[in-house]
User: Fold this.
Amino acid sequence: MHTIYLLIQKEFRQVFRNRSLLPLIFVVPLVQLLILPLAATFETKGIRLQVLDADHSPQSRALTRHFAASPFFHLVDAPPDARAADDAMMRGLADATLTIPPHFEADLLRSDAAKIHLSFDAVNSTTAGLANTYSLAIINDFNRTATATASATAPRFWYNPQLDYPTYMVPAILVLLVTIIGLFLSSVNMVREKETGTIEQINVTPIRKYQFIIGKFVPFWIFALVDATLGLLLARYVYGVPIVGSLALIYLLLIVFLLAVLGVGLFFSAISSTQQQAMFMAWFFMMIFILLSGIFTPTESMPEWAQRFNLINPFAHGIRAIRMIMLKGAAFADVRQEFYALLIYGSLALTLAINRYKKMNS
Amino acid sequence: MIAVTNISKRYGAVQALSDVRFSVDRGELFGLIGPDGAGKTSLLRILATLLLPDAGEATIDGLNTVADYRAVRRRIGYMPGRFSLYRDLTVEENLRFFASIFGTTVRENEAFIRPIFAPLEPFRRRRAGALSGGMKQKLALSCALIHRPDALLLDEPTTGVDALSRKEFWEMLHELKQHGIAILVSTPYMDEASRCDRVALIRRGQTGQIDTPQQVVAQFPHRLFAVRTDNAYRLACDLPSWPTLHAAYPFGACFHVIDRRPHIDISAELTAFLHQRGHSAVECLPATPTMEDCFMEWMKRDESE
Assistant:
């Protein structure tokens, strides 16, 4: 126990004396949390819409006003004819065209059914899809005011009623942030002792392998948890993300999540002989597992093999659990599966790291 | 104290050590002398429990370096060839760290390491990485000794250290002997052999004669001559055409020449030969063999076999 304490003390001294590492540990996550949720947003505002109104009736103007009132659309100059409208789309002057045919108002009043035509610039399919969704909502809204009979569906979004993007992203970015800090610190650290040769001196001492690995593990655990705390404070007070679930449970999940991340990092460190090798492995591991984890795209829309792959993806478990606790107030029973998966993952990775670290070489 | 029995080690196609055997007694300073790549580091790493031998065994204080590695680690002090302390920790922190790891304290062993640590006293708070080469080496030795080991393994401790620090270092080792520590030092410098109690020459993983440096030199089988002329380059070209040449190689500012016929003074003969070849200021004097001459002779005999 005393040995582990000495190793941890040594590790802390080294980190606090490293003038380039220390700011990285504390500034990078802050910057990341302040920039990413705002930048990595799917919300599309100010879609440039041109309206080709061939009806010129009060109803057609009312529909146009509905679009103009939406924050998602921005009306640009109306084209004189269909050819001009196509041309504007082609040249990228407009993102969407709303065509209101003649007799629109007449059809609407007579048969309660009128046709309009919407076309989108779908080079970016996500933007086009979103524009379409926004349009349908606006038309729905228009229908309710224009006709008495039309009954529109009014969806309600649970746990994130405003469909607020930061609410969805911040918990995931929090997980991403502790991963970056934990994984890179741990994967580079032990191999650094190999590169500088200090491990030679350590290896001839009575320090046991598990003591050495734990001595590496604990400091990074602490740094990552400090970062997570900073992240949670930002989430709560900058983004106003509700933290519905219990804080203790969030930390419990973060602790087992970091067990897995640091275990993997130390394993990479144990099997590589240069910092570069370890760094590459950590980077590759992170890219693949993060992209598959459902941080940006829902896992449900991934092919089945990818969904099955996520069973061994610590990020998928971590992100799902943290989102569930933060946004839905999930209790331990709800995230039990994620908890145990991460616990097993972490124990395995750590055992592997201890085994692959050799004090005596053949 | 240190016993090496028929140790062999191979890295792929390279035979790093073959059938090495020797022993070092308590209070003995034993030198392992050979050029780079001779296998010195591999041997020391096997003794330090960092490397597994392919065959043979090594014991420290009767404890096997493979089977009893944990007990061995408490009894040895190992100083790798490369400075291996924490550069970002201070002198004092390094010393305390290694003392505590071995379950002892700096204070308990202060008197023991004082002769070595004293010059470092003013730099207690300086980071180890900011010390000079000689100071680094003294700190490394202090850390290797802080748990009072029975055996000290030093891998090329004097490589890259200035002449004065080297001299001081050897003097410190002689002082340490008094405490009954068995000291094994490897070095590529032949001239340091005379500072050891006994030496083993090592080359291509094989040890040669193992004896006191005086004995090794006394057993040099030839008469040796030191030759010097006005033109060293032409001398190097002309010496091979000396009809009864056994060996000629540069040694400091002159050439060492050995004749094939034993016990014959060739100075007059060789001087005439060189004058005939157009050399002037020819100087040819009998010389006392050194460890380097013994090494060259051993190498030559080895190659002809």
